[in-house]
Amino acid sequence: MILTNGKAYLEGKWKTGLDILVEDGKIADIKPRGVQKEGQVVDAQGGYIAPGFIDIHIHGSNGSDVMDASLKSLENISHFLAGNGTTSWLATTMTMSKNEVRSSLKAAWEYMKSGYTGAQLLGIHLEGPFLNPSAKGAHAEQHILPPTIENYRAITEGFPGLVRLVTIAMEQEGALELAAYLKEKNITPSLGHTRGNYRQCMSAIAAGVNHACHFYNAMTPLNQREPGAVGAILDSNTVTIELIADLVHVHPAALRLAAGVKGRDRVVLITDALNAAGLKDGEYESGGMPVYVRNGEARLKDGTLAGSTLTQDKALRNMIKIGFPSEDVIAMLTETPARQIGVNGFKGRLAAGFDADINILDSNFNTVTTFIKGHAFVKQLN
């Protein structure tokens, strides 16, 4: 297959006059346009050819939830994502009982081994249960556990290599020991759902914690005399932040400030989407609690934000709309998340030998066609 007649995203820039050659689900080569004569030609019609997006923090979509612990639900989510430019993802858990979380891990484990026909599930983001109850957000407080190695093992034993990212309130007793244990296993510990002060958060960062869960949300804010978690994360040049660019969770000015400090190599655009993503306003359930969606905003009864209804292609357009160069936003959706979960050797770039996870976008950055390992998904218009 030859993808041609588009602006290809290479080395952080849009480049023209190139063909992307795909063979056996991989990018075989990138050559000057017209050099390769044989193959199925895919005409980008002057649009953009970008790597597939990677969502490392998503709970569900299209009526399905990771906590359904169902292969059918995971397949439904994967198909929805593939229609919106996301080619791989981490199934993100909620704070529920140990048995319920283990059931969701078992379903993901089986789904990954059984093959897939949509966006590729790369593993698990364990968002709970190691949170601070005072910063629980939309998580169920009764199921929050101390962040100990023993508790982590009890939840994840029997699923080696499945978990790639774990959110932890780093000020809690046992948190730094758990973070060190995770790093030994090549799992990314993430600072989040925290009431930690500046000193506590900087201690975690000094210990090697280099990722922050949905930055700004469910963490201590910046104050001139107590910079809090937000200040510690901004003050560190090693921490990569997740941002929800739905323009609800984070004000456009705050998005510009955070990404301006961090740069595109330290920002990951996530959706934190729940099962209502892709559906109409109404009442849903997430983590065993009722969630009310009005005007696309998902909240608990008390008004607490409970995830989003965002898609990554919409996040791309939102970030461009508020002033970011498209080249920077693409990095936040591809190369940076790939690095943070350890898949940057085969995901997140248009390069020879990488998986042929590719998006064709139109001039307004709408997803036209998504390829996952060379298999095409055509955007379904509502």
What do you see in this structure?
This protein has 382 residues and is α/β, with parallel strands linked by helices. The chain folds into two domains: 2-48 and 361-378, Urease, subunit C, domain 1 (Roll); 52-348, Metal-dependent hydrolases (TIM Barrel, Alpha-Beta Barrel), CATH 3.20.20.140. The chain is built from ten helices and 23 strands. It has helices spanning 71-82, 98-114, 149-156, 175-184, 198-206, 228-235, 252-262, 312-321, 326-333, 335-340, and strands at 2-4, 7-10, 13-15, 18-23, 26-32, 41-43, 48-51, 53-58, 60-61, 64-65, 86-92, 120-126, 163-168, 188-191, 211-212, 240-244, 267-270, 282-286, 289-294, 297-299, 358-361, 367-372, 375-378.
Supply the key terms.
Urease, subunit C, domain 1; 26% helix; 382 residues; 2 domains; globular; six-stranded mixed beta sheet; TIM Barrel; 10 helices; five-stranded parallel beta sheet; alpha/beta
What layout of secondary structure does this protein have?
Blueprint: E1 2-4, E2 7-10, E3 13-15, E4 18-23, E5 26-32, E6 41-43, E7 48-51, E8 53-58, E9 60-61, E10 64-65, H1 71-82, E11 86-92, H2 98-114, E12 120-126, H3 149-156, E13 163-168, H4 175-184, E14 188-191, H5 198-206, E15 211-212, H6 228-235, E16 240-244, H7 252-262, E17 267-270, E18 282-286, E19 289-294, E20 297-299, H8 312-321, H9 326-333, H10 335-340, E21 358-361, E22 367-372, E23 375-378
Parallel strand pairs: 1-6, 2-7, 8-11, 11-12, 12-13, 13-14, 15-16, 16-17
Antiparallel strand pairs: 1-4, 2-3, 4-5, 7-21, 9-10, 18-19, 19-20, 21-22, 22-23
